[in-house]
Amino acid sequence: MSVHKELALDEVRKYHRDTAADGGFIPGTTEIWPSGAVLDEEDRVALVEAALDLRIAAGRSSRMFESRFARRMKRRKAHLTNSGSSANLLATTALTSHLLEDRRLRPGDEVITVAAGFPTTVNPILQNGLVPVFVDVELGTYNTTAARVAAAIGPKTRAIIIAHALGNPFEVAEIAQLAEDHDLFLVEDNCDAVGATYNGQLTGTFGDFTTVSFYPAHHLTMGEGGIVMTSNLALARIVESLRDWGRDCWCEPGESNKCLKRFDYQMGTLPAGYDHKYIFSHVGYNLKATDLQAALGLTQLAKLDDFIDARKRNWRRLREGLDGVPHLLLPEPTPNSDPSWFGFVITVRPDAPFTRAALVDFLEDRKIGTRRLFAGNLTRHPAYIGTEHRVVGDLTNSDIVTEQTFWVGVYPGLTDEMLDYVIASVREFVEANS
Ligand SMILES: Cc1ncc(COP(=O)(O)O)c(C=O)c1O
User: Fold this and answer.
1) Domains, the chain, ranges and CATH?
2) Taking a C-beta distance cutoff of 8 angstroms, is the pair 156, 133 a contact?
3) For residue 292, is pLDDT > 80?
4) Any catalytic annotation for residue 218?
5) Atom 7 of ligand 1 has which residue's CA nearest to it?
6) Which residues line ligand 1 (CB under 6 A)?
7) What is this structure's pTM?
8) Bridge partners of 329?
9) Coil, strand, or helix at residue 148?
């Protein structure tokens, strides 16, 4: 390492220590965020080092992250993207590729998904001219069930795309079995559940594709970022093409002629020998991330196990501290699962003597941050009214989620003192209003 770089990084370390000092927790004054990035000295150094090296596009850190994360998540192939939403877009769009021949999804085909959740789990279905079929969720786990999915399967059903809700696995083994029995693709949106297991097996390893987000609220962060993973090499190749402008060539930037046939292809109606680097086999995007993001991802990845443990510990503290509080429905892990929690979900029972809004106002006044279970019932949002979709069964619980549910944080930046203040505040409000 050059002496100037070493000196610069030493200064970064000193700067980090200067800025890292915090004034301690003051109840009612210090913000208790529902989520956030936990960034240390090594993260700051990694980012600055990538900048000093001017690694401004995707390069060696991106490739290293892809291979390490794939290994950690037990998938053969990973493709880094600029967001979890882009990862979902790529996974869904890949299912429409002409390379899948008879198995490809075509406009009008149906995809089973969940009504209550994050919009960009569902949006790629609509963006590809496919038809979402919405099913309801359970209260307590906030996931749908295999029985609801089975009831939604019809003659046009071709795929299932569902997120593990706020870190809590859905019944993924049973739903993967349904997918296999009915020849459906399964995409697991694992953006909120990295490290969770179902029947002892990591979520994200049951379906054809899995996606992860690296936005700061998530289990590890790159600022913005996401990843698509699969163990199916043909699907991986399609994702790479779609992510990288739709090109047919698989050489990394800076590489050429890895296939030893760069000037020997004849595709479409192009002249024979047209440069393979510029032959496009998909109507693609550019959804790549940069090495600045990947460099941060690598230092974050080294701490992933600790982050997951802290999330579980924080969730347990809240769960035990709030146990028995009347009028609240507390969260439950899906049977046979070990969740990797994203948040702590509370539903105010519809017959409670106080409203969700009053409880949330009380907490927010005390600087205890709250969030909604994302969109709640998506079908009630302006964007989806008038779009082609089907609903199977009713969406009663999704409506209850829309009206009565919120969550507070469990992310690793929260201390026991903060969590105890959250518990005491909820208890104080409920006692005063019952
Ligand atoms: C379940 C789920 N899917 C997808 C996303 C989108 O990820 P991103 O914000 O990186 O686009 C989120 C974001 O929080 C999410 O919670």
Assistant:
1) 50-300 (3.40.640.10), 304-432 (3.90.1150.10)
2) no
3) yes
4) yes
5) 84
6) 83-85, 88, 118, 120-121, 163, 189, 191-192, 213, 215, 217, 226
7) 0.97
8) 347
9) helix
